[in-house]
């Protein structure tokens, strides 16, 4: 191996090792309490690590979206529609899809009685089209069998659930964000492990 190649390889190994060891805020110990845990014990260990999230105010979410949900063209990202081109001032229009955007609680805030800090936790409060958001209402997410509503370009839909075990109405987001939604829900039941069991409508029944 040439000396130059060896040096670059060694540098890469040292950088990766350094990043791995640091953890958030260069702590090196952030997830230490979760080491070796599995199943419920792992989830509870993670809860104890993240249970006091630093959330912004509900109004502060709008400014925060400039960092988290700005598209490459400078417009705001829409989680429920791919037919919108919102500027930051196009808020709250509800006449039709594309008329305006608002803040959507992916875990409906009626489930937890609009309590804080869940109400303004940006991990699950997302910018979405007002009209499509209203069609979603507080229905749980699920796979739709017979659709009663479909957003433009078939991006998201509402209808009867086709998954065995539940026959009610569900809202199905687009395939490209289903993984994100699943991770959001895992975060919510982990971060708020001591609260979510008391949420009045926190399950599809």
Protein model, in words:
With 205 residues, the chain is an alpha+beta fold. The chain has a domain at 56-198. Helices cover 32% and strands 13% of the residues. The chain is built from 5 helices and 5 strands; from the N terminus they run αααββαβββα. It has helices at residues 3-22, 39-50, 60-68, 130-136, 175-191; strands at residues 101-105, 125-129, 144-150, 157-161, 169-172. The chain has a 3-stranded antiparallel β-sheet, with no helix packed on it. A two-stranded antiparallel sheet has the order 1-2. A hairpin with a 7-residue loop joins β4 (157-161) and β5 (169-172). The longest helix is centred in the first third of the chain and has 20 residues, at 3-22. The protein starts with a helix and ends in a 14-residue tail after the last helix.
The N- and C-terminal alpha carbons lie at a distance of: 64 Å
Give the biggest beta sheet.
3 strands, antiparallel
Spatial strand arrangement across the major sheet = 3-4-5
Low-confidence stretches: 1-22
Please tell me the overall pLDDT.
87
């Amino acid at each position: 191996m040439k000396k130059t190649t060896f040096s670059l390889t060694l540098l890469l190994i040292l950088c990766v090792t350094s990043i791995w060891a640091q953890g958030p805020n260069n702590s090196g110990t952030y997830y230490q309490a979760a080491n070796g845990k599995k199943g419920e014990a792992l989830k509870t260990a993670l809860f104890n690590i993240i249970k006091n999230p630093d959330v912004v105010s509900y109004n502060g979410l709008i400014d925060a979206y400039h960092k988290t949900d700005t598209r490459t063209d400078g417009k705001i990202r829409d989680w429920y529609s791919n037919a919108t081109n919102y500027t930051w001032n196009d808020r709250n229009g509800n006449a039709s899809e594309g008329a305006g955007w608002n803040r959507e609680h992916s875990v409906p805030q009626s489930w937890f009685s609009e309590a804080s800090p869940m109400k303004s936790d940006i991990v699950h409060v997302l910018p979405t089209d007002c009209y499509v958001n209203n069609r979603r209402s507080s229905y749980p997410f699920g796979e739709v069998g017979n659709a009663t509503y479909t957003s433009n370009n078939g991006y998201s839909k509402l209808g009867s659930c086709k998954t065995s075990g539940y026959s009610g109405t569900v809202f199905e987001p687009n395939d490209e964000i289903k993984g994100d939604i699943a991770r959001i829900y895992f975060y919510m039941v982990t971060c708020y492990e001591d609260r979510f069991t008391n949420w009045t409508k926190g399950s599809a029944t």
